[in-house]
Amino acid sequence: MNNSKNNLSDRKFAGSKTVLGEINRTWGTQLSVLGAILLLVIGFSVASPYFFTFNNLVNVGHYMSIMGILAAGCTVALIIGALDVSQYSNLALTGVFCILLDRAGVSIWLIFIFALVAGTFLGLINGFIVTVLKINPIIGTIASGMVMRGVTYMITEGKALSISPENSDVYYALGRGTFLGIPITILIMALVYLVIFIILKYTAFGRQIYAVGGNSDASYLAGINIKNVRIGALMIAGATAGIGGFFLLAQLGSMQPNTGEATLLDIIAAVLIGGLSLSGGKGKLTGTILGVITLIIIQNGMTLLGIQSFWQMMVRGIIIIIAVYIDVLRGGGYK
Length: 335
Description:
The chain is an all-alpha fold. It has helices at residues 2-47, 54-79, 87-103, 108-131, 137-156, 168-176, 184-202, 204-214, 216-221, 226-252, 264-273, 285-304, 309-332; strands at residues 161-162, 178-179, 182-183, 254-255.
């Protein structure tokens, strides 16, 4: 009788260990990042009376939304093992074109559609560079980003361009407005994440993205068109850059030719903190948004504490090193 009870207890214990192990395997990284976010919120709330206020949280939401939109596209590209480092160059160029269209009297809604199409087209160019020319994705998108940035400087002559005054209120409402206290750009970011989540979770294309990122040779033998999948992933990354360009323009009312030059690596750090790997094949959007929130909280907290910009730059660099090293520990390091 005692042996039967002991066996039953052993089976229950083994079953609980299996469940906990599955939770740790599936959500371990996200839970760890969530714990870090809670500690950061508590720490900065104690250190600064302005951190946990409604106005500051709204400002954090506005700033986070643009990085979050781009990070969603970066997630897709990184899952497939094709890191796109041209996103902010895409954003700046698309934003400048949007200003030119605005000054020409084009409807704001048509300008948004243009931003989406233009960003996607620039992603298509990246896909051509990576798949047809067979250039390493990092090198290829660095080069394409330099071209985009050069065109942006050429169009603007190195100066900031602003939207027309008569449309400023509409842009401000889209970029800085709220709905039920929630920034509109956060709602746009949530919609982008929902669409990409559906693509990755419930479509054949989404499953092919994970398959190609995990093992491209096996995917080829399984009949998957690897080139098309990689091009599609980079087009999604480009589309999110175009959307981000439009809404960043709406937030600021202008676009600098050097917009985003100093923040691209923050996106890469965010997705790596969230559990993605530079080697591709794995990652969740939930991890990405948690990684974005972590970086934004750190940056906002340091700003509120009056920490000088060069110290903030050093901290961001250390965070990037830590994020990449975490990827090394997961097996995605340089071989």
